[in-house]
Amino acid sequence: MENGNLDILYQKMELMTKKVLAIIPARGGSKGLPRKNILDLAGKPLIAWTIEASLNSKYITKTIVSSDDDEILDISKEYSAHTIKRPNEFATDIASSEVVVRHTIESINEKFDYIVLLQPTSPLRDVLNINNAFENLFKKNATALISVCEIDNKILKAFKENKDGFIEGISNNKYPFMRRQDLPKTYLSNGAIYIIRVDKFLENNSFYTNKTISYIMNDIQSMDIDTKDDLEKVYNEMNKMDINAN
Prior knowledge:
CATH superfamily: Spore Coat Polysaccharide Biosynthesis Protein SpsA, Chain A
Order of helices and strands: HEEEHEHEHEHEEEEHEH
CATH topology: Spore Coat Polysaccharide Biosynthesis Protein SpsA, Chain A
Distance between the termini: 39 Å
CATH class: Alpha Beta
Number of helices: 7
Shape: globular
Radius of gyration: 20 Å
Number of strands: 11
CATH architecture: Alpha-Beta Complex
Largest sheet: 7 strands, mixed
Structural class: alpha/beta
Number of domains: 1
Strand content: 15-25%
C-alpha cells in the first residue's frame, strides 16, 4: 500500500476513536412553514431524514434531537434518536444555535471530542456528506468545518460606506475594479453541517475557529426547507433521484 493511502487509512482509524455528538435542533415553532420539522417528505417526517443520516454515519457516536415540542421528541424517539427537552427560552425566534448546543452539552453526563450540528431542514445532506466532511476535517488537521455552497463572486465588487461616509470595497479596494473571472471564488454557509471540537466551542461559544475549513456541497444538496415552496422543490428533487422512505 502506498504511503498516501496508508496516511488516509491511519487518519480514518484515528477518527474512529473519537467520540462525536450529533445535535439536531428542532423547535416546534416555525412561521414560514408551520410544523415543518415533522411534515411528511417522501414518506416520512422531515426530521427523520437527518436522524437517519446521522445514525448511519460511521463517525457519529450519539445522535440527540433538541426540541421544546413533545410531538417532535416522540417522533425522534421513534426513529431511534436520543432526545432532550429544550427550555422555552431557548426555543424562540431569536435563540441562537450556539445556545442550543451549549444547553445540550451541559444537559448530558458524557464527554465528547467533537460536535456536529445537523439542521433538520437540509434533508438532501446525506450520510456520505457527513462522513466525507469528517474525513476532510481530519485530513487537513482542522478544528472546525462549515458546509458551504458556491455563490456568485460578484459580491466582491460591492462597496460599503465607512464611518466617515466614504465608500470602500467590502473586502479591499482592488476587487471592485477587477474582472469577475479574476476574482476568487466565494462561498456561503448552507446550514447543513457544522463540525467543531468541543473544547474549541466551549472556549469561544462559536462554530468558527482560526483553523476552520469548508466542505463544499452542490446546490441540490444545499437545499434548505423554510417554506411550502421549498418543501415542494425538495420533494421534486427526491423524485428525480428516486429517493423515498423505502
